[in-house]
């Protein structure tokens, strides 16, 4: 009995992140989603190594070909390899999704923390958030893109300019949910004993936010990050499908869907591949968000 007690006393205490990982592993959907999303990331990043055919290479003689050893997913109307274009489209779509998610996360966290911590500007910031929530987002996205597309294309080039525009448009129209969630947590944290104790010893607000507030709102921020990637990928795909995203010769998953609709009756499989890529990627990210939400909730993690 003494040896068991001694061994238990010498065992290092478990970290909080270790408990989070243990809870996350019990969520089978989240674990499968993480594995699949990691697979998608590796596939699109290592796409040129896995499948070295150029996504822009035109081979008229092989146009409209079905699946074969030379072209596992077939070719399009110009003879471009569909597998290479799915890889290239994944790089563009996921890059847009992650960058737009970071922008919306920074905006939402900043507005949520400031609104929750400083009472004087809480009302104006929340009314601004309500205003953005009340706006019809899709028409707003279309108007912004139509107004600034040509100017950014001229300044940064056709691809970089549209990338900046799409990321900016998605980022500034998807921060509101993060702001409201973070504000709610900050309002509760502001009245906790350790925050009041830090205030009583004269800790300045900037240090109070960085040392005591932000570390304790990481949980909703991380969940919002995963869900924000899915939302950004869907929005970018919708814009590209409407023909308002990247140029026609620059593949994204939404652009591949747009190009395939003209040949839907003759070659319906062309819609299948980018559609599956979008659906499965978004589904995997949503499962990751569900798993993180459960794992980061101490009431569930303690069961």
What is shown here, in short?
This protein has 303 residues and is mainly α. The chain has helices spanning 2-10, 16-26, 28-45, 47-50, 82-117, 122-134, 137-156, 158-172, 176-189, 193-200, 205-213, 218-241, 253-260, 269-296, 298-301.
Total DSSP E strands: 0
Morphology: globular
Q: How are helices and strands ordered from N to C?
A: HHHHHHHHHHHHHHH
The helix content, as a percent range, equals over 70%
State Rg. Answer: 24 Å
Average pLDDT works out at: 84
User: What is the first-to-last residue Cα distance?
Assistant: 27 Å
- Structural class, judged by helices and strands? mainly alpha
Question: Can you describe what's shown?
Answer:
This protein has 303 residues and is mostly helical. The protein contains 15 helices and no strands. The protein has helices spanning 2-10, 16-26, 28-45, 47-50, 82-117, 122-134, 137-156, 158-172, 176-189, 193-200, 205-213, 218-241, 253-260, 269-296, 298-301. The radius of gyration is 24 Å and the shape is globular.
Task: Write the topology of this structure.
Layout: H1 2-10, H2 16-26, H3 28-45, H4 47-50, H5 82-117, H6 122-134, H7 137-156, H8 158-172, H9 176-189, H10 193-200, H11 205-213, H12 218-241, H13 253-260, H14 269-296, H15 298-301
Descriptive key words:
303 residues, mainly alpha
């Amino acid at each position: 009995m003494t040896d068991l007690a001694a061994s238990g006393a010498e065992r290092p205490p478990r970290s909080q992140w270790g408990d989070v990982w243990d809870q996350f592993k019990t969520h089978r959907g989240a674990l499968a989603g993480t594995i699949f999303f990691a697979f998608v990331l590796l596939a699109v990043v290592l796409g040129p190594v896995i499948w070295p055919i150029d996504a822009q290479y035109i081979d008229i003689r092989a146009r409209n070909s079905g699946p074969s050893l030379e072209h596992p997913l077939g070719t399009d109307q110009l003879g471009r390899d569909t597998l290479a274009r799915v890889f290239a489209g994944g790089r563009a779509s996921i890059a847009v999704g992650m960058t737009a998610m970071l922008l919306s996360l920074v905006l939402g966290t900043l507005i949520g923390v400031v609104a929750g911590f400083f009472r004087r500007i809480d009302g104006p910031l929340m009314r601004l958030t309500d205003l953005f929530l009340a706006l019809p987002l899709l028409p707003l996205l279309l108007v912004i893109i139509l107004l600034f597309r040509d100017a950014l294309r001229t300044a940064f080039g056709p691809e970089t300019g549209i990338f900046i525009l799409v990321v900016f448009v998605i980022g500034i129209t998807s921060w509101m949910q993060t702001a409201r969630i973070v504000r709610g947590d900050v309002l509760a944290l502001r009245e906790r004993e350790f925050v009041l104790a830090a205030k009583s010893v004269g800790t300045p607000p900037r240090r109070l936010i960085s040392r005591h507030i932000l570390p304790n709102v990481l949980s909703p921020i991380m969940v919002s990050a995963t869900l924000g990637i899915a939302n950004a990928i869907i929005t970018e795909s919708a814009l590209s499908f409407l023909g308002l995203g990247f140029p026609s010769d620059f593949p994204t998953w939404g652009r591949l869907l747009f190009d395939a609709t003209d040949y839907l009756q003759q070659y319906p499989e062309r819609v299948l591949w980018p559609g599956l890529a979008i659906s499965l990627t978004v589904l995997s990210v949503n499962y990751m968000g569900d798993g993180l939400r459960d794992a980061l909730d101490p009431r569930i993690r303690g069961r």
